What we know:
By secondary structure, this protein is α/β, with parallel strands linked by helices. Helices cover 52% and strands 8% of the residues.
Amino acid sequence: MLELYQFELSQYSEKVRLILDYKGLDYRKIEVTPGIGQVELFRLTGQRQVPVLKDGIRYIADSTEIAKYLDSEYPDRPLLPANSKQQGLTLLIEEWADESIGAKSRKALFSAISQNQTLRKSLLPTTTPDILKSFVQGVPSELLQIMGVGVGYTPDVIKSALADLKQDLEALTLLLADSPYLTGDEPTLADFAVAGLSMLLKFPDGPYLDLPVSLRGQGVPLFAENPAYEPFFSWRDRLYAQFRKPLISSTLPTTPSAPTSIQIE
């Protein structure tokens, strides 16, 4: 069975999970603990960042490289269209989505959790002790904003990211106005990249992620609650309903759907 080293909240991991489900491939999720788990991942693969796919004795890092590998080794339900113009457009959209939606949505979510105590608490793992949940919920917004500045999330950076994301969603809505998918009548890598990478703006409205049920359909209020972007998120949720496998159980770590914690030797 394929193994996916991942973070459940990683949009790039979600992009790969969508692709694996679309291709009908069984896989086991291995949840990498930030920090110490990444050290072990580096020992195994020479790569600290997720996602990393293991196929037999091969390790493939980076969501784009994983997509290319899967299309080469498991060609059923191809990710790239045969038409050269559509193929070029698919690759352009995928690259743009990685660099724009992927990077900027993390800034948008940070801004939202800085201001929304309930959302901040809901994003904690379900196993988090109640006392720690209460502590995190009670952290002043001003302190979180100062911490954000420390990692480069200044007010100007966040403002710019939010403006860019508005334009991104407007453009995507226009592209989908008279087409079922971004580059034509069949789903491609472009669709799965955009759908997976938009996860942090608004979580899918269904049992696809090992996260609290209360988070389904929730996200960054500026986008998740704005009717102007409802057509885009409705399209994305239809894509999930078509191709994403729902969780079997979040309590059975050996199932293909539920993440398994990485073991540290």
